[in-house]
């Protein structure tokens, strides 16, 4: 019987996601780089939100951040999740804490928190379903070793590290300490590159976070090729094998490549009419990790991840209704029993 209390323990930026349906013209008028995550200051974020509210109106609001979406997915499939993060003692922070805990995730967050401004991520979705993000980190830029709960981390199967943390000195220090605790307690380490911009502008910091390698690396095709200076995902995979014992490269509408340390599995895409790509990679990682914690094969874990990510792309917003997770599980279990 396992003594591990949590399936996945994650550390990442806590951000309240605000989603809007926008036009390409809006992005062009405001000088926003389409399809990327851009860090902005508080004034820039407030000005952008005012313009979006005026022109389009808010569609959805939820506790988010890349790793939060992943850890919420693990919980929704029936896993046990813990999230280390930082929000302020403000209304946005109160909303975040309530929403995260309502999703079934345990965290380090308490009712009494530091004064400051909680982070926000404005997600703008264009008619082609591409998502563009402007992020004001707020107090989450100070996420540090103080947010770690060593006993909970030591009692987990996996540590999941969000690549977006690379832009913060204190966060990289926290990642180093989290890795140390994980290695000392036999906890496997997974990491995601999070965004092409992180690889393009913060590669040395990502290398620092990777340290002597990870047990599982998640990235998309663009991130993999940028990291490896490779022309294709297949070529990039060969380079990534040197820094990870397992690698998953998502390929959008082409599915994914999953290397399990011995062989490469091609994960078939799940057909879907795209509505909003926001959160698809986060969901893929959450579903895949959930499968691994159930000792599933890469093919079975990949099938759930592919189906779940497609379901996210086929709707507006990064999260699925709770009952949809159960339905996806039933479908994959029926098709892959014994794997």
Overview of the structural elements:
Helices cover 41% and strands 20% of the residues. With 339 residues, the chain is of the alpha/beta class. It is globular and about 55 Å long. Helix 10 (280-293) packs antiparallel against helix 11. The model has no long low-confidence stretch (mean pLDDT 95). The two termini are 21 Å apart. The strands form two sheets. The protein has a nine-stranded mixed sheet, with helices on both faces. It has a single domain, classed as 3-Layer(aba) Sandwich (UDP-N-acetylmuramoyl-L-alanine:D-glutamate ligase), CATH 3.40.1190. Strand 13 (256-259) and strand 14 form a beta hairpin.
Biggest sheet record: 9 strands, mixed
Q: How is the CATH topology named?
A: UDP-N-acetylmuramoyl-L-alanine:D-glutamate ligase
End-to-end separation: 21 Å
Largest beta sheet: what is the strand line-up? 6-5-1-9-10-11-12-13-14
CATH superfamily: Ribokinase
The helix fraction, in percent, is 40-55%
What is the count of β-strands?
14
- The whole-number mean of residue pLDDT values reads 95
Instruction: Estimate the strand proportion.
Output: 15-25%
Shape: globular
Structural class: alpha/beta
Which helices and strands, and how do they pair?
Blueprint: E1 6-11, E2 15-21, H1 24-29, E3 37-39, H2 42-55, E4 60-64, H3 66-76, E5 81-84, H4 91-102, E6 106-107, E7 119-125, E8 131-136, H5 150-154, E9 156-162, H6 169-184, E10 188-192, H7 196-210, E11 216-220, H8 221-228, H9 233-240, E12 247-250, E13 256-259, E14 264-267, H10 280-293, H11 298-313, H12 322-336
Parallel strand pairs: 1-5, 1-9, 2-7, 3-8, 5-6, 9-10, 10-11, 11-12
Antiparallel strand pairs: 2-4, 7-8, 12-13, 13-14
Helix pairs in contact: 3-10, 7-8, 8-9, 10-11, 11-12
